[in-house]
Task: inverse folding
């Protein structure tokens, strides 16, 4: 293609002898994406030079702007010198220099430079932070800034001196280099520094190595990430020698892989290994107290589901370490379900296999079990003309159990579980004034099921919950080892109110009536006449507790959700609530939970706790935050933290103090101080302009 | 009192049962959600005039922290964002979101008791059951919202 | 061998004789003006000026009697002088002042460079041209 042509526009152009062209008045030169504005330009044709008098503005692409008083450039604006220039990168980082030289349109060399991304005003001309350097080179192609003899100043005070410093310019998102260091202070490990270094390994992988050094630890943290066309892989790990465990090496490895395989199959891989149970908490790497290493392969389609998983468990809980070999070590499951349209309804056929093994082979405590099950169910719905929805399903499951190391159960036993249920729904609707819509939906379900065959070991149906999600479920046991039996009626009413203003109100009330209280009694359960269900589950006896749930939402800002299970004289069995509020100044999230103590769920005492997390933007630059967890049962705060953030367009300073009050042998109470500084406009994206400092002149 | 059955003769959702095709799922929770939604909105025979896609985003919070730093209650907060569209043109008819939470226990083992209630398997099964209940709750709330607001998005009933 | 394109080519010795040729001529004795129409071509030394219509104004009495003092060209004017060429809708050549004022869609081409605006004043004595009124110049950087 023909070489690009330069265009010059001006109010007046004088053509002189000796090949001078003088343009004056709002002069603009456009050439190959570079745009220069000035008041006067003399174009010396034979020398192919432009002598420019300012104020000059030169824009090279949308990310680089250079302002100057005087300049002499060659006609294609690629090479030349600008005097008392200021270069602005990505509208954030500003470099002021006595002289700025453009070299072949790619490099810009600045001499005696002050670089900062902070707004400077007449009344406080000193920027919050700046980097002064004798010489700076900006490589526009590699998007890097090279400083020579650089001096880092905060509020005008020189803090650090770098003979040579390289920083990515704001437009570069992924480049190898030093990340912002952070300081971590805990009462156990003292004050330590973390200096992360980021290695970009091509376009699809990266590695971050972070040495963490303090008076009592030498640790190297690592994070490796790789993206494939069909999935992602990530490893987080750390290696430590410290004073807490002076004579051995502590480490942890968390690996996570997610892959999309052909024909809609998806694969998930997880690895979680740690050297000792206190390591994750001591170093704040994770609050997981049970590790799971395993794989899961699944495929979900509209009418079929395949789901296979194999998991190895390891506990970190100090109370469980003594009996760790009696806890499940390996748990494998395979299940397949397929729904076939048949006669206006659906025939659902399914098969599943579960295997559970424990390292110990103590009788009963070291039990291993395997189960093979088949299920078939026919389900059909009708819509009666009056608007009544009827739904019927009939089906049966058969299970064969193989039990090892448990005298209470024979080696093999089997059982058959037939069931039938009929559900009637009558959704009613009313249009209120002003576009308000009301819906009332009464639901009545009659269900029956029974177990024929011998009692089977219960490995998966111990932790029972009762909410609107299983008010109309055929079995409210979480797993398959226990089944609700007998005739029962489940009744519920749902109310929904929506308004155009974004106001939504919802409520559900429900209860279960049973013909007899005795449920699928397993040989091992020690419950009383309630059979299967414990009092604290809310499903005990022939009449369950009341279930009531409500939700109020006001637009995207406010959401309050509450759910309670209580008996006839309003004695709470379970009560949980969540409140979320956010607008542009305040964000608040609080959770409340009350669970009655329940021996069968190993909950000797009530769980009664409130957590609160809130952040309030005090002013344009200051944001305060507070979080706490209050344990009503222990009647004291369990953890509290206060945070303060000062943020402008060029710097973010985070201060935080949090105190954990709990005391155990492995984990002692500790206070954690956090102090983080990050400079905006240097290698990390766009600053939020609402924090930009303003010169209220 | 002004309430009329939605699927009744003068109902705002008359003729709508079995006319909304739920988008196919991509994962296990999605399978349960799609099954519940399609069951409640009526199985579709042949082509349906409406398509419904629903994406659920679940995040977990640890509650009930014991003095030993053990998390004994896990809450799954689910937010479902949905898009009801005209199946022939693909144009969005109604979009919105519903949210709710379910929880499950991960109890601490107490040496005094022999039965190991809160082991990893009972907790893993409890978690899957909590996810299934959450999908059922979100599906019920979505169906309730669609039925309640049928006059706003449905156009003239046939 | 460097062929420098000089702007200097605009300089012109205005004392040289002026010849005018055209398809038709209409002289008005009363006010001493003459109007040439149709492919008018004015030549003075190296410089040529062509247009559709040219009105010649003669000097009045006293010393300039009979001498042309001003040429007014219109209907699309082209001025060529050595390597420079300029086009516009109208032009006025004041011979005594040695100045040509071209107005209306003025385009001055000089080698690969082209300047456009709506007014160009050429001073033939010292060979300078001044364009104003949002001048637009297109030039070839690096071309010798």
Result:
């Amino acid at each position: 293609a023909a070489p690009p042509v330069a265009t010059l526009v001006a109010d007046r152009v004088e053509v002189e002898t000796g090949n001078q062209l003088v343009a004056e008045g709002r002069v603009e030169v456009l050439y190959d994406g570079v745009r220069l504005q000035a008041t006067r330009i003399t174009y010396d044709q034979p020398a192919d030079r432009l002598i420019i008098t300012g104020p000059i503005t030169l824009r090279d692409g949308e990310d680089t702007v250079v302002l100057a008083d005087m300049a002499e450039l060659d006609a294609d604006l690629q090479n030349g010198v600008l005097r008392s220039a200021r270069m602005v990168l990505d509208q954030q980082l500003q470099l002021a220099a006595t002289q700025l030289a453009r070299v072949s349109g790619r490099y810009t060399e600045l001499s005696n430079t002050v670089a900062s991304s902070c707004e400077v005003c007449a009344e406080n001309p000193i920027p919050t932070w700046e980097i002064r350097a004798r010489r700076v080179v900006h490589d526009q192609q590699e998007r890097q800034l090279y400083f020579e003899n650089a001096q880092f100043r905060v509020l005008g005070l020189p803090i650090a001196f770098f003979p040579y410093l390289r920083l990515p310019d704001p437009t570069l998102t992924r480049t190898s280099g030093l990340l912002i260091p952070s300081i971590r202070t805990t009462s156990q490990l003292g004050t330590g520094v973390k200096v992360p270094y980021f290695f970009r390994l091509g376009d699809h992988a990266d590695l971050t190595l972070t040495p963490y050094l303090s008076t009592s630890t030498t640790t190297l943290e690592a994070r490796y990430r790789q993206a494939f066309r069909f999935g992602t892989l990530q490893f987080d790990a750390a290696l430590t020698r410290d004073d807490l465990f002076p004579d051995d090496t502590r480490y942890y490895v968390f690996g996570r892989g997610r892959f999309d395989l052909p024909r809609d199959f998806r694969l998930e891989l997880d690895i979680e290994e740690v050297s000792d149970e206190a390591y994750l908490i001591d170093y704040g790497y994770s609050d997981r107290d049970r590790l799971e290493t395993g794989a899961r392969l699944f495929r979900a389609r509209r009418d079929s589901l395949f789901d296979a998983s194999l998991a190895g468990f390891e506990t970190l809980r100090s109370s469980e370490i003594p009996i760790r070999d009696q806890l499940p070590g390996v748990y494998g499951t395979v299940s397949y379900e397929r729904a076939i349209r048949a006669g206006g309804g659906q025939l659902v056929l399914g098969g599943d296999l579960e295997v559970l093994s424990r390292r110990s082979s103590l009788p009963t405590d070291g039990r291993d079990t395997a189960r093979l099950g088949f299920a078939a169910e026919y389900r059909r719905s009708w819509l009666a003309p009056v608007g009544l929805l009827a739904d019927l399903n009939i089906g049966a499951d058969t299970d064969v159990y193989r039990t090892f190391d448990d005298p209470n159960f024979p080696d093999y036993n089997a059982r058959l579980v037939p069931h039938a249920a009929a559900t009637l729904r009558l959704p009613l609707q009313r249009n209120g004034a002003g576009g308000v819509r009301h819906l009332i939906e009464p639901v009545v379900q009659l269900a029956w099921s029974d177990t024929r065959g011998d009692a089977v070991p219960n490995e998966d149906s111990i932790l029972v919950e009762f909410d609107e999600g299983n008010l109309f479920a055929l079995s409210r046991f979480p797993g398959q080892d226990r089944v609700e039996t007998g005739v029962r009626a489940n009744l519920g009413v749902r109310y929904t109110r929506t308004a155009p203003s974004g106001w939504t109100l919802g409520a559900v009330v429900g209860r279960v009536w049973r013909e007899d209280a005795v449920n699928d009694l397993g040989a091992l359960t020690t419950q009383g006449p309630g059979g299967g269900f414990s009092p604290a589950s809310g499903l005990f006896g022939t009449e369950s507790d009341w279930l009531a749930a409500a939700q109020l939402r006001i637009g995207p800002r406010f959401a309050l959700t509450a759910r309670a299970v209580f008996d006839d004289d309003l004695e709470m069995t379970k009560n949980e609530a969540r409140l979320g509020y956010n607008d542009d100044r305040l964000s608040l999230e609080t959770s409340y939970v009350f669970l009655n103590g329940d021996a069968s769920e190993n909950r000797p005492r009530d769980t009664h706790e409130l957590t609160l997390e809130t952040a309030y933007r005090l002013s344009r630059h200051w944001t305060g935050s507070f979080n706490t967890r209050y344990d009503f049962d222990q009647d004291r705060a369990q953890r509290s933290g206060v945070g303060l953030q000062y943020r402008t367009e060029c710097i973010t300073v985070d201060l935080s103090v949090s105190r954990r009050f709990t005391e155990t042998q492995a984990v002692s109470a500790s206070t954690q101080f956090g102090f983080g500084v990050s400079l905006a406009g240097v290698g990390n994206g766009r600053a939020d302009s609402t924090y930009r400092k303003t010169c209220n002149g | 009192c002004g309430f009329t059955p939605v699927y009744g003769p003068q109902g705002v959702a008359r003729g709508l049962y079995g006319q909304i095709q739920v988008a196919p799922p991509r994962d296990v929770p999605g399978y349960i959600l799609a099954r519940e939604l399609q069951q409640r909105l009526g199985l579709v025979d042949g082509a349906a005039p409406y398509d419904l896609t629903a994406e659920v985003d679940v995040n977990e919070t640890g509650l009930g922290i014991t003095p030993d730093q053990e998390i004994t209650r896990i809450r799954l907060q689910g937010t479902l964002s949905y898009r009801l569209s005209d199946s022939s043109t693909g144009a969005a008819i109604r979009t919105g979101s519903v949210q709710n939470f379910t929880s499950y226990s991960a109890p601490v083992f107490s040496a005094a008791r022999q039965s190991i209630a809160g082991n990893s398997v009972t907790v893993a099964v409890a978690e899957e059951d909590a996810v299934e209940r959450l999908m059922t709750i979100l599906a019920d709330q979505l169906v309730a919202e669609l039925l309640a607001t049928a006059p706003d998005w449905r156009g003239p009933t046939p | 061998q460097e062929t420098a394109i000089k702007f200097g080519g605009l300089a012109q010795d205005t004392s040289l004789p002026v010849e005018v040729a055209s398809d038709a001529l209409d002289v008005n004795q009363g006010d001493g003006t003459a109007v040439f129409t149709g492919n008018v071509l004015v030549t003075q030394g190296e410089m040529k000026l062509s247009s559709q219509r040219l009105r010649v104004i003669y000097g009045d009495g006293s010393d300039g009697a009979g001498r042309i003092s001003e040429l007014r060209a219109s209907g699309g004017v082209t001025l060529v002088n050595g390597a420079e060429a300029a086009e516009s809708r109208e032009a006025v050549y004041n011979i005594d002042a040695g100045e040509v004022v071209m107005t209306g869609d003025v385009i001055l081409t000089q080698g690969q460079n082209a300047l456009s605006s709506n007014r160009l004043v050429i001073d033939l004595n010292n060979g300078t041209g001044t364009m104003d009124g949002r001048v637009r110049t297109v030039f070839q950087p690096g071309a010798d």
Residues 8 and 29 of chain A are 4 Å apart (CA to CA). Chain A touches chain B through 103 residues (CB under 8 Å).
